[in-house]
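Record type: monomer structure entry
Structure origin: computed from sequence
Chain ID: A
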Amino acid sequence: MTRRAFTLIEAIIAMVVLSIAVPATLALIHDATVARAETTMSTRAAWLGSMLIEQILADVASDDPQLGMDALADDEAYLNDADTGLFARLDQAIAPFENAGLDATVDIGPLISESLSTSGDPDQDIYRQITVTVEWNAPGGGQRNAPITFLVTDPTP
């Protein structure tokens, strides 16, 4: 019975092949992991932005005297009041997103007309442009943001 074993040349060739293939494979796995993490963060950003937009739209349509379209006139109070502000009311819902590294800001513009400019006529300036921006540090490096801009108006006649 004869035994067959690797020769020294075969062992060296196998080592060279592995030394080329393994780093390339690891680089591909790393790139795929970063791409997956980027997609996950983008999806979370969309969820957070959507949640804020839906709450703002609900607030504008609310019958509550502290909410409605008039509440947006004092954007600082509407957004940051310690008890009734948007971020205070959504604190528990926003916390998991903040823990994941996302940060959201809301910018409420002045009253504007349908041409997106201030006309000075209160019958025409019935819209507000609101921008919700979600920011995060990208897993692949750098800062990312997702701004979402929309218009609101008083839904009551």
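Annotation 1: The first strand starts at residue 102 and ends at 112.
Annotation 2: Residues 9-153 form one domain.
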